[in-house]
């Protein structure tokens, strides 16, 4: 144990010396009183100085260490007979994209490797050579690149597959392959036997080739759709195309876009983030540096299902919209006339600035909306009763929390994956340090996962 401490100290000293090529500036030398006065003040005691220790809120408990693949989404079933933690990983070269935690340090493909292996590969080589673009496989019954997992109000596990694997060329430059209808999908899994219970895909005028489905929330109230089986609200967060809600009727399988390209969906031009105090540009190898352009990202529902709270990732603003205007369908056979998009646009409310860019939301039974604040290694909470954003938890280990879910045990679970330090954003140099983590923190005042309010049985 002692020797490993010595190694850490040595590495720290070495870092301090190599300031010309470190991305962290070295701290200034602290001047003692003798430096100012030209002589030492006899008996002067250095006062204790206030400092930001980077920490507040409930204790952070580490639930899992990721040594193999960097995670993105997670699902937590901490109670009952079938307790389990699941993780997903976007691809890339990874062997599997949906996994289950097996112990503190290991995961395995779930439900098996076969469903994580699209026959013919992640790309459709024929379509790619025909079009000149990297085109993804259209495999509907295999997982391609799973971005998010979520537990619906009835406790069922859902899997959101972007259908868009990342392609890295020989020189280290990376892009996402374009989606082909059938590949992007929302899948309901049976957790007991690992079978697929239902799969929803999207037509090409709802999910575009450069769409990027990022997250999903469920409202299962029977009276919100004619089919009576509730809806899924899906985030199209594309950083290259169009941002919108994709609303999916779980009864009919019909889907439509809402608030397409609305200003509240879009990234703010030249909005700059800083992570761990470092102003950050994205430098993809072989390309010019730029500011992150990701739009609509965080989404959470109020416990009564009446409001959707949301924000683009690259934006300072928090928005909400009544879900009634998202549910209105003016598609080809829509029942709500042709002004649904106009009404939705006019109903958006700007709730002011968040104090950070945010890269994901979840909500709890007391109505708090948790906002992931990667610039502060923190989670903030919007309290609808006071209309204020409150501090919730902050910890230097929470570097880029990529996803959180509120679970049945009254804890919020999250994954940290150090994304801004990934090779793809750092001119081809991998700066992340394994392991990634899954953590949990206790919610205040006995709050828990939203169940009955959103139509759960
Ligand atoms: C960093 O800079 C120092 C001093 O300029 C040099 O000795 C060292 O080799 C450099 N390290 C790397 C990894 O480039
Ligand atoms: C960090 O500072 C806060 C505010 O002063 C304090 O409440 C907290 O206990 C400190 N935490 C640690 C780990 O020192
Ligand atoms: C976790 O499981 C892996 C693979 O089965 C095994 O190699 C490892 O020793 C286990 N770790 C712990 C902490 O039990
Ligand atoms: C690609 O084309 C070849 C030759 O026509 C065919 O055998 C193969 O099945 C095609 N692959 C896919 C994924 O369609
Ligand atoms: C998927 O693509 C293959 C090859 O292009 C094609 O033969 C097949 O019909 C497609 N499947 C669906 C469901 O569109
Ligand atoms: C999995 O379980 C569900 C419900 O418990 C059942 O309907 C289905 O037939 C099972 N599938 C398999 C392959 O065992
Ligand atoms: C659905 O039912 C709930 C509870 O009865 C009610 O509060 C809500 O207004 C209804 N929603 C719609 C869209 O009718
Ligand atoms: C719309 O209705 C027409 C005629 O009733 C039908 O042929 C068509 O399939 C429907 N389209 C959709 C998207 O439901
Ligand atoms: C807001 O007020 C409602 C009604 O009094 C209460 O049930 C809920 O717990 C409160 N939520 C917060 C975050 O204070
Ligand atoms: C990226 O690395 C290349 C060399 O591989 C270098 O020429 C270029 O200046 C670097 N870009 C930035 C923004 O540091």
Short descriptors:
457 residues, mainly beta, Neuraminidase, 4-stranded antiparallel β-sheet, disordered N terminus, Major royal jelly protein
The main sheet comes to: 4 strands, antiparallel
Relative helix content = under 10%
Q: How do the strands of the widest beta sheet line up side by side?
A: 1-28-27-26
CATH superfamily: TolB, C-terminal domain
The set of bound ligands, ions and cofactors reads: 2-acetamido-2-deoxy-beta-D-glucopyranose
Low-confidence segments, given as residue ranges, are 1-21
CATH class: Mainly Beta
Number of helices, counting only DSSP H or I runs of 4 residues or more: 5
Main location: secreted
Organism: Acaromyces ingoldii
InterPro entries: 6-blade_b-propeller_TolB-like, MRJP/yellow-related
Family: Belongs to the major royal jelly protein family.
């Amino acid at each position: 144990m002692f020797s490993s401490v010595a190694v850490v100290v040595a590495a720290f000293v070495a870092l301090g010396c190599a300031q010309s090529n470190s991305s962290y500036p070295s701290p200034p030398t602290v001047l003692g009183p003798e430096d100012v006065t030209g002589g030492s003040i006899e008996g002067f005691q250095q006062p204790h100085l206030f400092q930001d220790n980077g920490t507040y809120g409930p204790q952070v408990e580490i639930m899992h260490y990721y040594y193999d693949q960097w995670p993105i989404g997670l699902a937590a079933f901490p109670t009952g007979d079938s307790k389990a933690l699941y993780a997903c990983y976007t691809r890339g070269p990874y062997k599997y994209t949906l996994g289950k935690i097996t112990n503190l340090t290991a995961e395995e493909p779930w439900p098996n490797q076969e469903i994580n292996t699209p026959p013919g590969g992640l790309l459709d080589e024929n379509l790619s050579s025909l079009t000149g673009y990297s085109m993804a496989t259209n495999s509907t019954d295999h997982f391609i690149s799973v971005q998010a997992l979520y537990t619906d109000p009835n406790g069922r596990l859902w899997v959101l597959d972007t259908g868009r694997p990342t392609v890295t060329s020989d020189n280290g430059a990376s892009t996402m392959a374009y989606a082909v209808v059938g590949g992007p999908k929302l899948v309901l899994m049976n957790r007991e036997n690992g079978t697929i219970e239902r799969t929803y895909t999207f037509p090409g005028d709802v999910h575009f080739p450069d769409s990027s489905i990022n997250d999903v929330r469920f409202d299962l109230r029977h009276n919100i759709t004619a089919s009576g089986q509730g809806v899924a609200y899906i985030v199209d967060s594309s950083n290259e195309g169009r941002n919108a809600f994709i609303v999916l009727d779980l009864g009919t399988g019909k889907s439509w876009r809402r608030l397409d390209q609305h200003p509240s969906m879009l990234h703010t031009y030249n909005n700059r983030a800083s992570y761990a105090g470092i102003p950050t540009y994205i430098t993809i190898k072989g390309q010019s540096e730029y500011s992150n352009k990701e739009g609509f990202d965080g989404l959470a529902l109020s416990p009564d299902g009446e409001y959707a709270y949301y924000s683009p990732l690259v934006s300072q603003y928090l928005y909400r919209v009544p879900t009634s205007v998202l549910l209105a369908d003016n598609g080809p056979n829509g029942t709500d006339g042709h002004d649904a998009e106009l009404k939705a646009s006019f109903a958006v409310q700007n709730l002011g600035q968040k104090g950070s860019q945010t890269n994901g939301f979840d909500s709890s039974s007391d109505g708090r909306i948790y906002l992931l604040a990667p610039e502060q290694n923190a989670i903030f909470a919007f309290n609808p009763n006071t209309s204020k954003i409150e501090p919730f938890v902050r910890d230097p280990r929470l570097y880029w929390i990529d996803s959180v879910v509120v679970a049945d045990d009254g804890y919020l679970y999250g994954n940290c994956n150090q994304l801004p330090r990934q090779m793809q954003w750092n001119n081809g140099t991998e700066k992340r340090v394994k392991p990634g983590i899954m953590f949990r923190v206790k919610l205040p005042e006995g709050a828990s996962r939203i169940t009955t309010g959103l139509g759960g049985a």
